[in-house]
Structure to design on (636 residues):
């Protein structure tokens, strides 16, 4: 298109305000990504060498029963039609029934996902609030003992297997010192004492105003959350350090110093402002990683989360549960990405 | 009294293969004048500017017999005392506004911050001062520019914003470190004119660091020519063409001239002797 034409077009005011167009584009991209995700899970469901009919009717069913079930499940229809049914079901929150629990997969997920969500959120918060200052300090005092300590802390986080850390944590803080409660989300005595609203123990207890249960649940969650937090801290602090080093050698930092600003104001008021966008990406990656469910941590701490749910389902060929879980995890990733994109625009004027 | 006296200034960087001296014992004064410092890359001219503000990053070290600001010694000033000097008494404009302005803060926030660091003023008063200052650097629409981000303004405007920001606390000395090297030739003159006007009106001292001999000769009152961390020659700007040192002559001869066209420009031949010659004093 010629430049003059483009300019002429630019002058015509668009039919919808900008925020509406942005929202529409965002929603369209969510829908499209979601469709892609469903397509993949659908294909996986078809190519797996597990007969979905046998899984329902059992191995000893007669041929007639098998055929009836085959037709009832719509497997005689063309693939495209089946895909249509699948999308319809998913949109209605219907992932089929789980073989293992004999309950709708959606109900199972509504039970296990909040547990993971609660643990992952607390873990990520710990990682951010400890990792960012550590990384900033390491960058500012580059090469000093603070930097060395930060390096060792991160190295241990990178290289220590999580199951070992979990076991040692339980042994020391639960077994020997008795500072925290053991595995599980809440002591058996308190189970079912607060009504389930969000599925997150801490939130439900707080909503109910039952601080005894809250304290007990907190005592259960703090150790696994700290261990997961430690792993995010390792990653977050290293990334923060390298982002900060890059900014601290930038010319606008000299400008800030020439103005007569204190070193602290230079670091937090100028340099840190410029790494926020990059940090958001790091936080999101590390949060998403935990939201998938950290299987090993969940197993060690008997934490009924989505990681151990999907793993158990996979090992017993419970495909409805596996695919349902996958769709939910995928959806969480998509939503997290959109949230990050929005934050970029808020924090970086150049991205607007 | 001179605004600034610097005597026997060294800037040293310890490296794995011994200490590297970027500036090797130079002395000069600055009155209420425009002092040019010229030299090639690596001659130590930028380091001199930053050493005055004590902004040499560790492990770099500053050593000197004295650095006096209006007779008061700066050399052993504490961090806090130095912060009170920076911005409010000595300020600096750097090369490229694309890098020297914070990309995620509005122009207004950055100028207001510079003012409020040294003046007790409400945000509103500071804003009013910022608008006046932007008008002083010939920005036509200061209200709009205050709300703009650095990437939304042109290079020439960016540099005028930078000048406004560095002048707003009313310093006595401005160090301009290659202030026009990143700008289009067409706006260089304008930016220099504005800077000159402000410096003259306020009776300030200006240290103008540049590699451009012609520009310095036109713009400054006195010129220090630096080579390898030392001052090899000091002269009045209008007598630059009478310069005696072979390095200065070489620099002048390597420039093309409209009134004396040459087929081939002279290449500068450096004599290793020059490195060893003692630094010429620029003290007044």
């Amino acid at each position: 298109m010629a430049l003059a034409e483009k300019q002429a077009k630019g002058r015509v005011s668009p039919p919808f305000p900008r925020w509406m167009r942005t929202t529409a584009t965002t929603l369209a991209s969510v829908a499209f990504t979601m469709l892609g995700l469903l397509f993949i899970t659908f294909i996986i469901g078809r190519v797996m060498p597990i007969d979905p009919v046998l899984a329902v009717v059992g191995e000893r069913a007669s041929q007639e029963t098998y055929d009836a079930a085959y037709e009832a499940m719509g497997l005689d229809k063309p693939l495209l039609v089946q895909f249509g049914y699948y999308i319809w079901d998913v949109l209605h929150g219907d992932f089929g029934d789980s073989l293992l629990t004999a309950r709708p997969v959606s109900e199972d997920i509504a039970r296990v996902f909040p547990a993971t969500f609660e643990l992952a959120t607390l873990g990520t918060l710990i990682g951010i609030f400890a990792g960012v200052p550590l990384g900033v300090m390491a960058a500012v005092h580059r090469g000093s003992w603070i930097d060395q300590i930060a390096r060792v802390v991160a190295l241990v986080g990178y290289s220590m297997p999580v199951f070992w850390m979990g076991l040692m944590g339980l042994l020391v803080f639960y077994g020997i010192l008795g500072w925290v409660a053991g595995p599980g989300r809440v002591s058996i005595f308190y189970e079912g004492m607060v009504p389930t609203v969000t599925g997150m123990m801490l939130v439900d207890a707080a909503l109910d105003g039952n601080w005894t249960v809250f304290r007990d649940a907190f005592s259960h969650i703090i150790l696994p959350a700290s261990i997961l937090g430690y792993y995010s801290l390792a990653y977050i602090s290293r990334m923060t350090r390298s982002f900060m080093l890059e900014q601290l050698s930038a010319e606008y930092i000299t400008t800030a110093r020439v103005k007569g600003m204190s070193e602290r104001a230079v670091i937090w008021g100028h340099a840190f402002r410029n790494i926020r966008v990059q940090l958001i990406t790091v936080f999101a990656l590390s949060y998403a990683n935990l939201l998938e469910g950290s299987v090993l941590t969940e197993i060690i701490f008997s934490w009924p989360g989505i990681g151990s749910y999907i793993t158990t389902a996979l090992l017993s060929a419970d495909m409805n549960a596996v695919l349902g879980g996958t769709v939910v995890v995928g959806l969480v990733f998509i939503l997290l990405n959109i949230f990050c994109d929005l934050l970029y625009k808020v924090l970086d004027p150049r991205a607007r | 009294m001179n605004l600034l006296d610097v005597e026997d200034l060294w800037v040293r960087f310890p490296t794995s293969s011994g200490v590297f001296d970027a500036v090797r014992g130079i002395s000069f004064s600055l009155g209420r004048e425009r002092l040019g410092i010229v030299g090639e890359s690596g001659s130590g001219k930028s380091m001199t500017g930053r050493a005055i503000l004590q902004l040499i990053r560790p492990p770099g070290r500053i050593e000197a017999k004295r650095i006096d600001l209006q007779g008061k010694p700066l050399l052993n000033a504490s961090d806090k005392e130095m912060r009170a000097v920076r911005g409010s008494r000595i300020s600096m404009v750097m090369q490229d506004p694309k890098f020297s302005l914070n990309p995620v803060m509005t122009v207004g926030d950055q100028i207001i911050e510079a003012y409020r660091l040294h003046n007790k003023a409400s945000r509103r008063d500071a804003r009013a001062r910022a608008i006046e200052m932007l008008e002083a650097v010939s920005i036509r629409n200061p209200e709009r520019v205050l709300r703009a981000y650095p990437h939304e303004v042109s290079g020439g405007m960016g540099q005028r914003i930078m000048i406004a920001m560095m002048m707003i606390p009313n310093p006595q000395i401005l160090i301009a470190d290659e202030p026009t090297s990143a700008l289009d030739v067409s706006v260089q003159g304008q930016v220099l004119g504005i800077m000159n006007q402000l410096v003259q009106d306020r009776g300030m001292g200006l240290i103008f660091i540049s590699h451009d001999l012609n520009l310095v000769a036109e713009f400054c009152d006195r010129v220090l020519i630096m080579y390898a961390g030392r001052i090899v020659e000091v002269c009045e700007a209008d007598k630059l063409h009478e310069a005696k040192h072979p390095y200065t002559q070489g620099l002048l001869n390597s420039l093309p001239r409209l009134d004396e066209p040459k087929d081939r420009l002279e290449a500068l031949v450096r004599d290793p002797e020059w490195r060893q010659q003692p630094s010429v004093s620029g003290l007044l």
Chain A has two domains: 28-91, 115-351.
